[in-house]
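Q: Fold this one first, please.
A: Sequence and structure below.
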Amino acid sequence: MKTVAALFRHPIKGHGRQELTHVSVDPGQIFPFDRRWAVAHDASNIAAGPQDWAQCLNFSRGAKAPSLMAMTADLDETSGQLILNHPDLPEITFDPDNARDAARFIAWVQPIMPENRAKSNALVRANGYGMTDQKHPYISINTTASLADLSQKAGTDMSMHRFRGNIWLKNSEPWEEFNWIGKTIRIGGALLKVEDPIERCLATTSNPETGRRDVETLELLQNHWGHKDFGVFAAVIEPGSIGLNDTVEVL
């Protein structure tokens, strides 16, 4: 029986992952507070404050700054305080919606940004559902079986954190998730429609413990499976709660 293995959100796009035990989802929405904020760089011409959805190339992220992949996050929804940790930086606690705190965060992250890349310069809050890579309000679904198969080809156990997914499922067959595209899937109390495969980027080549590139994930996917896809996008069509170990049914 397929069940939920792990749940994650990423309060600031590309800047830290937060593990959850349960989440409530609604149609037309992503995980609450997932990619609620993003970090614009000085080549994007995006100002601080609330902004409509924009393409990922406007923001600092792991594909261009691999060290960001080693960051973890802990957002307190009640207080609005966000705690970030990185192995090469001191812990920081701040309110992303406070301008002074946002500037302090930008200064905090600068030391781990590559010198040959556009500099991070503004913390942006997303209008609507979030600054996801896709303009659609999708939730990402990955499986531990596919990760194990990819890890076997790589010759090393890879962490699920490389793939920055929302929902991880266990007890499926490797790559079975691609057969769900166009189908509905019930996860816990929520119903989702699986829409598209997720084409991966250079962020997945970075080790989420060290922030250093160490596995050619895109090459492995292309050489062994003829594509660079890992995981699938799904849209919520019936609201509900999803928790760890909840059962999963493909309809």
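Q: Good. Now the second chain.
A: Here it is, same layout.
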Amino acid sequence: MKNTFASFGAAREVTGSKHIITLNGINILIDCGMFQGSRKETEYKNKKLNFDPKSIDIAICTHGHFDHCGNYPTLLNNGYSGFIYSTDATKQIADIVLKDSAHIQQADIEYLRKKAKKYNIDFEDKQPLYTLEDVGRVVNVWKTYPYNKWVQISKNIRFKFIDAGHILGSAQVIIETDNRRILFTGDLGRKGMPILNDPVFADPVDIIITEATYGDRVHDKWEDLEKKLADFINKIYNRNGRIIVPSFAIGRTQELVYMLHILEDKKMIPQDMEIFVDSPMAINITEIFKNHPECYDDETKEAFIRHSKNPFGFNKLKYIQSVEQSKMLNDYKKPCIIISASGMAESGRVLHHLANSIEDPKNAVMIVGFMAQNTLGRRLVDKAPVVKIFGENYENNAELAVFNAFSAHADYLELTEYLNHYKKSLKQLFLVHGESRVLDKYKQYLIDNGYDKVNIAEFSQFYEI
């Protein structure tokens, strides 16, 4: 009986992670994420899983980002009847993410339907990919385990989670059988970042399946971020502009708020510049952060426990809940920062803020995360002169600033340093979760640095392990 690995998402791309490891006839699905990209491609890829959900014996979720957990309802709706396993923080985050996704899907369809009726445009009557009821079914079959506790799958197969240091509750997965030990890194974090623990090393392994999102670049150092960010904020403030920040509600928003808190404490940014977090999901996620100190680094634990200081809230910060409050921001005339989801600017309230602000050159768009191909976020990063929002064209006149020091993914030097820990025992290495040109470049870099049997996982291709 062959033992195999195959990728059905995030193979030469960075969204829609779905990976299957087959050991002794047991099919293990790791992640079932939502693909994000052009509307037509997104709809096709998310409806069609390209594997039989009924054949999956166990499903594991590495973390609560949308591109890793966002399509579990489709898995269940198409016949998967087992459990989903993750850390407790990941389950709590995924619950919020999935409910938010179901709500946004329904809201987007209703918005487009009204718009079509208003302008007398033909509109195909589509249905959401899944509903809140479907999400409830997913949550009911979701089991949680802490880091470093073995879970027995069969007589000779077990797995455990170790900290990936990527977002709250994120995990690497160690799978053991009689004759091999596999490490699936999931999305791997960085050393020395605020709030979370650094990624953890496992004992020697035979096979590694790793992300390589930033396999072609080196991030700016976190230590250099303070002055650069403060200078940019002051520049926009001095011309009476607003800064729109498409931000992932999980992790990135909390890191950004943490940094803005530091800048305010040091009086490096204007004391009268209002900061808004306009994302109900981010607010709910921040509450989950408060309940999981086991994921914090020592500095954050000290802030919470010894000084009763909340790193995610300070005087000028305002969390926006209601739609009415969000709409009022459009008429706010003073300089401000608006942090809003979604992170790749594909849906959610940030679209309204971009539409309201992007044509005015005194305003700015601040990018603090990875933007996948064919997303509005990537078009902003590429400085497209005109961008389409809700089907209408807008001149992209706002200033752009990209701060990659916020990245929660290891860059290629950090990733290689991590892989070097396993180099002596390693027999096979697979690269996933990266754009094609990036993976090709990183594969060659690894080969040049003494790594053998480096494979780039091709979509739906099975590899013997």
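Q: Anything worth noting on the second one?
A: Residues 88-118 form the longest helix (31 residues).
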